[in-house]
Design goal:
By secondary structure, the chain is mainly α. The chain is 85% helix and 0% strand.
Length: 131
C-alpha cells in the first residue's frame, strides 16, 4: 500500500494547528458558558421558589399559630405555655425544611462536567497532533 505524503511545510502545519486549536478553545469556552448558565439558572430558580414558599408559609403559619395558641390557652394551658409549645413545634418543622432545601442546593452540580470532559479529549487530540 502506498503512503500518502503531505506536501505542506512545517510552518503551514503549525499554522493549521494554531487555527484549529483557537477554534477549539472558542468552542470550549462557549460550551462552558452554556453549562454554567444552565446551572446558575437552576440554582436561582430553586432559591426563588424557596424564598417565595417561605414567605407564603410564614404568613399562613402566623395566623394558624395564633389560633393554636389561643386554642391551647382555652383548653387550660397558661398563655406562655401554649406559646412555648407551639414555638418549639414550629422551630423543629422550620429546621427540617431548611435542611431539606440545603441538601437540594448541595446536590446541584456547578462544575461544567461536559466542558471538563471535552477539554480532556482535546488535550489528548493535541498531543496526538504534535506527536
Amino acid at each position: 500500500m502506498a503512503q500518502v505524503r503531505d506536501e505542506r511545510s512545517l510552518g503551514d502545519l503549525f499554522a493549521e494547528l494554531a487555527r484549529e486549536t483557537s477554534t477549539l478553545v472558542r468552542q470550549e469556552v462557549q460550551l462552558a458558558k452554556v453549562e454554567v448558565t444552565e446551572s446558575a439558572t437552576k440554582v436561582g430558580r430553586s432559591i426563588a421558589f424557596l424564598l417565595a414558599g417561605g414567605a407564603v408559609a410564614y404568613a399562613g403559619f402566623l395566623a394558624i399559630l395564633a389560633a393554636i395558641i389561643l386554642g391551647l390557652w382555652e383548653a387550660g394551658l397558661e398563655s406562655w405555655q401554649a406559646a412555648l409549645l407551639v414555638g418549639v413545634v414550629v422551630a423543629v418543622i422550620g429546621i427540617f425544611l431548611v435542611m431539606r432545601a440545603r441538601d437540594t442546593l448541595q446536590t446541584t452540580a456547578l462544575v461544567p462536567r461536559k466542558t471538563v470532559d471535552t477539554l480532556k479529549e482535546d488535550q489528548e487530540w493535541m498531543k496526538e497532533q504534535i506527536a
